[in-house]
């Protein structure tokens, strides 16, 4: 289980996160929502090692993640995507995913130089696995094309495929639906569900409420760097503090 | 197609001394081979991880001096000296690589330039060891069992073996998960980290390999010219390597080879054809034209042209 305890992030005098605590239930889709500037991406960065928290800790199945480098956190099965589209631009779609399989392979420097038969077998297995993942996100027809040449929505699918290639146990998705058309969002939602059904825990930051309420098992609401509500989508939609956070203070007092 | 081209090039390289009659031409081929090793070495860093080392002559010079000093002062055999030269250049690369963890882009460039500057000053001023600006004459020619590799033809084959070895090493490295990790660093470092690529590990690894390969070039150079002086640290050497890599096609396996041959043969050809001022002018114009018309380099352009015809 991924657990965040009293996580705090301050940039100089600005407090981005203030004692945030939550746990992500294994096998669930959990969404983090909140107005702009609520600290959602900051929380993602602090969990995945891109930002050193000022206080608090992050653990996975009891093991400390705080202070580890992003690559070390990825090695423990916690893999993230980025809010801004983030692919290996000049590589083909297939090579993007093949690169994402880094943790699925093990050959070191001397094994590579020796070039034994086992290495070739590993490479073949990786190529097959990459092809499977590309097919899973529905981009087989785009496999030889450079990632940067794809339309925006498909680039986001490449990004998802690269993250999946790292075989996450917990997948953190930072606004996977941003900038997508309605139809594309449906595709992403169904992919996220299928990923969850394969046993991957999904933690999601998303602005599209329809998508969030449609796929989440649990919703966590951040505002001003604090958790103000946590619960099932239906409960969250009716939560007075959430309504106040989204619609402004007057709505709550009215 | 590329396989056929590879065979033709390999056959041509193997038989070269038989159809190049003039020792001068073989000399140019040897220099092209040494520069090919250096360009491949630089390409590992510049082409695959995207980090520009403008102090690559330092690793070249460390290799040259180490090999020369060990054979001259301790009378070691060339082969042992060569191995230590490669190792020591690799150790220097390790320290530069560790520094590079904190620095990228322009700052990495500055560190490598300063490093080369410092090493060059050491070679000039540690007179007891290096003989200062006078340099070290009389570096012995390598021997292989009972044979001396003193002749140009023999040395040509030694250099050719080094080129082949370096090429094979680059090829294996680049086409493995290690090569993919290096390219991931170049393309998108944050994303590379997120999928578990240990940036630290791979940057240090590639800098060590690159520096060691430059050290190999240095050792071959020292035992060929039989003379080492602080000139080996000249910035010109680094610039030449960069031109070869960029013009040939950085981030490709064949690019540095094509670049090294072109930019070793070309100045020599120009030397025969024109006076010094015209040589430099023609060289400059050609360079500008190359960058302008083939910004990604000769090899990627050829590859694209071949792909279009299919």
List its traits.
heterodimer; A: 254 residues; alpha/beta; 2 domains; six-stranded mixed β-sheet; four-stranded antiparallel β-sheet; 11 helices; B: 310 residues; mainly alpha; two-stranded antiparallel sheet; two-stranded antiparallel ribbon; 78% helix
Walk me through the structure.
The complex is a heterodimer of chains A (254) and B (310). Chain A has 254 residues and is α/β, with parallel strands linked by helices. Chain A folds into two domains: 1-77 and 168-254, Rossmann fold (3-Layer(aba) Sandwich), CATH 3.40.50.300; 88-166, no CATH class. Chain A has eleven helices and ten strands. Chain A has helices spanning 40-47, 70-75, 93-100, 109-114, 117-136, 152-165, 182-197, 209-215, 233-238, 240-247, 249-253, and strands at 2-11, 14-24, 29-33, 55-60, 63-64, 78-80, 170-174, 201-205, 218-223, 226-231. In chain A, strand 7 (170-174), helix 7 and strand 8 (201-205) form a beta-alpha-beta unit. In chain A, helix 3 crosses helix 5 (117-136), helix 3 (93-100) runs parallel beside helix 6 and helix 5 (117-136) packs across helix 6 (152-165). Chain A is globular and about 60 Å long. The mean pLDDT of chain A is 89. In chain B, the strands form two sheets. In chain B, strands 1-4 form a two-stranded antiparallel sheet. Chain B has a two-stranded antiparallel ribbon with strand order 2-3. In chain B, strand 2 and strand 3 form a beta hairpin. The relative contact order of chain B is 0.17. The model of chain B has no long low-confidence stretch (mean pLDDT 89). Chain A binds chain B through residues 48, 50, 69-72, 74-75, 79-82, 86-91, 95, 98-103, 105, 107, 109, 112-113, 115, 119, 123, 126, 162-163, 165-166, and chain B through 169, 172-173, 176-178, 180-181, 183-184, 187-188, 190-200, 205.
